[in-house]
């Protein structure tokens, strides 16, 4: 069941504080430039909680996941802090607990070795104890038979593929699960099953970060929603805040996202999210915002607490 507990009620598992991620890009000769793709990003996730990270393509969702897992490319550098169980998540610690305590549920079976039977792949992921026993146990939990285990990734149906990917991700008893677009273009029944599996893991005490561009998918299971725009969080809200005309939402972008859904006004938001190279000093949403004033283009608003949620907007009340 989804929880309505306030964030403070959950044991803190992950805190991302003022995270920025930049890429060093080499141009002709020895000239180099720096492209900032994530700026001043804050989120927190507790044990037992599902936090959905929602935003359009290019808003920085996957890079956040990669920063937490410590798998950013070599030309990326981060500033800010990532705390896991209240301790700094250093590169050494990331390497040690990645794939066991902290794990990624990838988007597709392309992540798997195409030439290896799926049961064997899950066994190779096991870090401790009897690998065969662990694989059989996790397969039975996710309703995969011995015959299914003998298949190669390309032979899996959509639903089976999702169950193999989640089995591989949680076979080592993860505490923090990051699912990056786990339901791309899937049949609604398979989407529902995948979300149910994530909810079960959270109800057993895991923290789950569900990355999706689709707010409707997020609202089916998440406790909290973090809305991303142009490389930063613009709002964190409880799922219950998404109702009616969106009057309890805080940021104009979140309201616009909500109103653009088919079941609401189906009113699309004109304009585009700016590319990282074109970010201004001020609020990135300002050019599309009906509430824009000169202050908005001067400096980026800080994230502040508002009505049991958080928002990055000068005008939100
Ligand atoms: N290696 C890289 N070098 C330079 N820029 C990058 C690199 N990887 C990602 N970016 C840029 O960072 C921004 C955020 O990318 P990211 O993949 O996190 O977006 P996303 O929100 O996951 O999008 P999607 O929904 O399409 O998966 C994009 O503008 C992207 O072009
Ligand atoms: Ni992505």
UniProtKB/TrEMBL annotation:
It comes from Desulfosporosinus meridiei (strain ATCC BAA-275 / DSM 13257 / KCTC 12902 / NCIMB 13706 / S10). Keywords: ATP-binding, Cell membrane, Ion transport, Membrane, Nickel, Nickel transport, Nucleotide-binding, Translocase, Transport. It catalyses: Ni(2+)(out) + ATP + H2O = Ni(2+)(in) + ADP + phosphate + H(+). One of its GO terms (molecular function) is ATP binding. This is Nickel import system ATP-binding protein NikD. GO terms for biological process: peptide transport. It comes from the Bacteria. It is a peripheral membrane protein. Pfam families: ABC_tran, oligo_HPY. It is found in: Cell membrane. Residues 14-255 form the ABC transporter domain. Its main location: membrane. Its EC number is 7.2.2.11. The complex is composed of two ATP-binding proteins (NikD and NikE), two transmembrane proteins (NikB and NikC) and a solute-binding protein (NikA). GO terms for cellular component: plasma membrane. The keyword Secreted does not apply. Belongs to the ABC transporter superfamily.
């Amino acid at each position: 069941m989804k929880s309505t507990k306030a964030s403070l009620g959950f044991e803190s598992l992950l805190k991302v504080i003022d995270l920025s991620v930049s890429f060093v890009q080499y141009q002709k000769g020895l000239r180099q430039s720096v492209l900032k793709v994530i700026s001043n990003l804050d989120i927190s996730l507790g044990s037992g909680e599902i936090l959905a990270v929602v935003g359009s393509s290019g808003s920085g969702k996957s890079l956040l996941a990669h920063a937490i897992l410590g798998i950013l490319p070599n030309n990326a550098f981060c500033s800010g802090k990532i705390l896991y169980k209240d301790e700094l998540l250093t590169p050494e610690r990331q390497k040690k607990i990645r794939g066991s305590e902290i794990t990624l549920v990838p988007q597709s079976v392309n992540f798997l070795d195409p030439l290896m039977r799926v049961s064997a792949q899950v066994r190779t992921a096991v870090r401790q104890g009897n690998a065969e026993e662990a694989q059989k146990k996790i397969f039975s939990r996710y309703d995969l038979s011995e015959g299914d285990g003998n298949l190669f990734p390309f032979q899996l149906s959509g639903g089976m593929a999702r169950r193999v990917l989640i089995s591989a991700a949680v076979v080592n008893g993860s505490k923090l699960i990051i699912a990056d677009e786990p339901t791309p273009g899937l049949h609604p029944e398979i989407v529902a099953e995948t979300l149910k599996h994530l909810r079960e893991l959270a109800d057993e005490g895991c923290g789950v970060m569900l990355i999706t561009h689709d707010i409707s998918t997020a609202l089916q299971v998440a406790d909290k929603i973090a809305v991303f725009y142009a490389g930063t969080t613009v709002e964190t809200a409880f799922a219950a805040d998404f109702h009616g005309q969106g009057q309890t939402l805080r940021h104009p972008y979140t309201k616009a996202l909500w109103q653009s859904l088919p079941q609401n006004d189906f009113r699309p938001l004109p304009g585009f999210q700016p590319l990282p190279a074109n970010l201004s000093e001020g609020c990135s949403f300002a050019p599309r915002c009906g509430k824009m004033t000169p202050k908005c283009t001067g400096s980026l608003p800080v994230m502040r607490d508002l009505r049991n949620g958080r928002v990055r907007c000068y005008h939100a009340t």
